[in-house]
């Protein structure tokens, strides 16, 4: 006689292999897939597909017709056009009549890059590491030559160097001021909570609002600073027609918006510094400068280099302020690569617009990856 008690194995329930028990077990085993599937699908739809589609634009001449878009593959012509012909002056700047100082600066950049590669090879860097260093060195030499052929030779530069000017100078100014304000607010002073809130307010304003606000504030004839301009003898001066003044005022507006980001992150880092070590150094008679150099800075440097990296990535995409404040002018003096791509797109030159966007992507990846590998990771290793 069969036993009154029957034992069922998983997957062999009375309902069969697709019964309630086996179905719930199957769902449990694949639950992670079900949870991440919506995000993966959205990434495929809104990120990967447009990326590959933009590559088609970058490699084509695009013409608008009654039936839609017509593509004619030209391969890398859109990219090469940015390095030769009329577009070269727009992207790289004027490279003719390079001065002796410009050539000397270029050779110094080349010598530094070769010395760095030789030093890395002698230290036993892997082949993959040397390949990455070779790419970084090539970018360094290329940018050194462009800087020597334009700024140091008295020639106007293009959107490439303007973008790097915003990134290097803007991020440096923002980090120094933001860290300084964070250090002050981390001290036992009265009213520091009020200043913490006050310094954070600009970050909550959109770049569009910041651009229009600074454009009105800096108006020479009607702005609130008009009496100041008159007092210092700048009544007939227009900053928007001066290339360097326009660049610095764009950085001023960008810094006003992004210093709060540096401030709030660095403030959190400073408040996590060990007070026991600081108090022990004060008891030993160490000065404030010595305490910051030997105790505070080594503890916050991993956060510092990371926040600089994040800010650099964002700075490469600057477009709102130069577009609103100067429309890229005078000429193309304040035009960033993102704004350059936008103007080409607005002129229905889709192929060149996509090419400039991909050149910006390459520049951003190489510069930020180099900074991360050789600065951020280096500081993290020292911190350990």
Describe what you observe in this structure.
The protein is 68% helix and 3% strand. The radius of gyration is 28 Å and the shape is globular. Strand 1 (60-65) and strand 2 (68-73) form a beta hairpin. The chain has 16 helices and two strands. It has helices spanning 20-29, 31-58, 77-80, 86-91, 100-122, 127-149, 159-185, 192-200, 207-217, 226-231, 243-271, 275-283, 288-315, 320-325, 337-346, 350-383, and strands spanning 60-65, 68-73. It has a two-stranded antiparallel sheet. The chain has a domain at 156-383: MetI-like (MetI-like fold, Orthogonal Bundle). The chain has 384 residues and is mostly helical.
Measured as a percent range, the helix fraction is 55-70%
Largest sheet: 2 strands, antiparallel
Mean pLDDT: 86
Strand order of the main beta sheet, please?
1-2
Q: In percent terms, what proportion of residues is strand?
A: under 5%
Q: CATH fold name of one domain, please?
A: MetI-like fold
CATH homologous superfamily annotation of one domain:
MetI-like
CATH class bucket of one domain: Mainly Alpha
Please compute the radius of gyration using only Cα atoms. Answer: 28 Å
Summarize the helix and strand pattern as letters.
Answer: HHEEHHHHHHHHHHHHHH
CATH architecture of one domain: Orthogonal Bundle
Separation of the first and last Cα atoms: 72 Å
Count the DSSP helices.
Answer: 16
* Poorly predicted runs of 5 or more residues: 1-18
| Shape descriptor | globular
Number of strands: 2
Backbone structural class: mainly alpha
